[in-house]
UniProtKB/TrEMBL annotation:
Alphabetical list of NCBIfam families matching this protein: RND_mfp
Entry's family note: Belongs to the membrane fusion protein (MFP) (TC 8.A.1) family.
Membrane as UniProt keyword: no
Alphabetical UniProt keywords: Coiled coil, Signal
Location in or out of the cell: Cell inner membrane
Signal peptide (from-to): 1-31
Name of this chain's protein: Membrane fusion protein, multidrug efflux system
Domain Multidrug resistance protein MdtA-like barrel-sandwich hybrid per the UniProt entry, residue ranges: 67-201
Amino acid sequence: MHATPFNQAKVALLGGLLLLVLAGCDARGQAQDNATPPPPEVEVAEVNAEPVTIWGAFSGRVEAPQTVELRPRVSGYIDQVNFEEGELVSEGDVLFVIDPRPYKAHVQLAEAELARMRSQLTLASSEAARSEQLWERRAISREEFEQRNAAKTMAQAAVNSAAAALQSAQLDLEYTQIKAPVSGRIGRAEVTRGNLATIDATLLATLVSVDPLYVYFESDQQTAQDNPHGQAVPVRIGLSGQQDFPYRGQLDFVDNQYNARTGTLQYRAQVANPDGKLRPGQFARVEMPVANASAALLVDQKAVLTDQDRRYLYVLGDDNKVERRTVETGRRVGGLLVITAGLSEGERVVVNGLQKIAFPGMEVLPQQVAMRPDPAPMVVATAP
């Protein structure tokens, strides 16, 4: 079968169209291959110098300003226990009562003896007065006159002795009531009703004051050299397991020498505890201002990357190309880090979009943002 001129023309036309289509596709592919991708968008922030108060973090322990071991001042059997173990008591509350009956009898005996001695003093005083009149008339001898005056002096001494004995007996009777010497929290009763308590020996209970409380902590020598030693330095206190520092206190004592074994200096803060949530013996976390920086460079900590033991970040140049910059970091300020070396004020740092940077010197499309949303005039730094 032979092709007609019409069929030949049709085949030639289709072939030409196919060539044109292939040529167009090839041109578009080459154009796409030769096109340069746009620079990636990243967020950059300008570095500003700001005043910073550096706060150091320490471990401490809560202690009571006053810890009292209650012991009897007289011996006897416990007659009453007037408290619930673990409750708060006030200064002057009667906590224990020792059987007072023997001591009441001692007081009555001492009162009677004092009355007898006073009677003898009255008689001796009367005889001494008469002897003085008789001596003036020389009706008695000098020896008798002196004897009657001596008897008066001895009677006065006996009265004084009896009065002292009565006072001692009354004091012993008063000591049968063991009172709280300070306000605080009472522990468990070591001796219960009916048991013998021996003077100065038997431990009845332990009482600790709870408001305010002390927090003791220690600082290393380098930190202690720079931090404030004055009174009323503010501190922030949190308990073990707490994320924040809900309690506020003030530094009220700094030891006068370093511990030779540990090389540390002891500090003490006083913290109010009206609700009794803090208890002596608890471990605490303490933050205290240790230094002031008038112009600290702060950078979002997300911008700081780590390469083994070195830290670095990307700084944006005037040509919108990023430069890898090794820096030294200090303490943490919330979500910011203090940069101590390697960076200058006014430079721009990449804070978001770091994953888009493939290599140093890469061009980027910067979007200016604030280093932190709340530019307060003063910030505080904690230990890293």
